[in-house]
Each structure stands twice: as C-alpha cells, then as structure tokens.
Amino acid sequence: MVKGYGGSGKFKFETAEQESPVGTTYFEPVRYLIEVPKVFEYLRSELGMEVELLHDVHEQLSPIEAAQLAKRLEPYRLFFLEDPVSPEQKDGLAFIRSQTTTPLAIGEIFCDREQIIPLFVNRLIDYLRISPLNVGGITEARKIMAIAEPFGVKSAFHGAADLGPISQAAAVHLQMAIPNFGVQEWTDFYSLQVFCELFPTPCKVCDGYAYPNEEPGLGIDFNEELSKRFPYSPVYMPQIRRADGTVHGY
Q: Which listed residue (5, 26, 32, 76) is catalytic?
C-alpha cells in the first residue's frame, strides 16, 4: 500500500491498488488533522522558530477542515500553507483567510490571469505558485507578478520535477528580475547523470541560493540528439481513497 498524507499501511480495504492502474494513495482527513500539527510541534522544538517551514495540503481538505488546520499551525509560524483547498473553492479560500493568520499559497495549476487576479483583489493569498511555463511564458508571468505587487503578493514559482530544467531556468531568470520575489521551489535535476548530459548548462544552487547560467537566452542548452534515446512515457497521479476504499476528493 502507498502511504499518503493521513495515510497508513493498515486498512480494511486491501485491493484498491490492484483495481487502479495508476496506483492508490490513502488519505483520512481526521487522522491528517491530528498528525500534521504534531509534526510541526516536533520540528519547531528541534529547529527553533527561525528556520522556514512550509506545508502542502494538496487540495485534500474541505474549507472548514483547512481552516482548522491553518489555525492549529499558527503557533509554528509557517512560511506558507499551500493549496489548502482546490482553486475552484474561492469562497472557501475566503473563509479560511478570515479564520487564520497563517500565510496562504496557491496557483501551481493555474493557466491564465483571469483565474489569478481575483485572488489579488480580494487579498486571499500571500504567495503565488504559478510557473511561467503554464501561464503563457515569461512575459505573461512577469505581467501577472506586476499586478500582484501592489497587493503584497510574492512569487513562489512552481518547480516540480515534471516541469523540467528549461522551465526551471525560465523561472529563475524571471524571479531575479521582479521586485516581489518570494521563494523558488527547487528540483535537483542534476543528481542524475542523464540530466547533466541532456541539459549540460544548468541553473545551480549554492548555500541556499539559486544561480542561473549566464550564457545567452535562458543560459541552458539541450542535447536534442541524445533526447531521442528517451521517448516520452506518460505518468499519472495516483487515485486517492479513504481508508474504507471509497474515493476521496474535493
């Protein structure tokens, strides 16, 4: 079985993985709401209050559950709480905002400014999790962040592994050029030799800071001939179920 947030290796429903071709993650909101604050209590006791801590809910909670979690996490000073509810839950996001001082972040699956601007105007978020790749490129992402600035919203560009090193380079260059930079999510692509060969001029991290390659353009090269040895293979997110096997989702 796959353990997820609020998950466990011991459930009554034992066949979900076999029935789902994309795999199964198990999630129980009550267990999650009990466990996560304990994790942050421990981390703060070990790390102190100055180290920045973040947490991603992955849209798995209802608005009332997310508000409960955000309030319980207030004593542990999160840098931000990410995706407390799904992007469609704008009213729910407003409710969470009214109940807590924990900073909120959202946006990694946004694809246009019409989805984003109401969040600025209504002051529902503190960090925007877009990637330039998904919102129309560097120019559009720059315009969105210019709109965000007077509302006090900072960037926290999405940087998951599936976006790739070229998208990472675009994000790093843009974040160096905007006044409301917040943080950059980072994937260490070059821990694998194949990425070093496919993209031989990467962005790098040193002492917690990201640095772009200063060659022309985005500064990153691509070995197109070598890439032919690695044909595209689709990958899917797992199906999420509750402990009794019922499908979970908000």
A: 5
pTM, rounded to two decimals = 0.90
| Homologous superfamily, domain 2-241 | Enolase-like C-terminal domain (3.20.20.120)
Choice among 42, 55, 58, 250 that is catalytic: 58
Active site (annotated) includes residue 5: yes
Q: Report the percent of the chain where pLDDT is more than 90.
A: 71
Assess contact for 236 and 22: CB atoms under 8 A. yes
Domain residue spans of the chain:
2-241
**Per-residue pLDDT tens digits for 37-75:** 999 999 999 999 999 999 999 999 999 999 999 999 999
58 is annotated as an active-site residue: yes
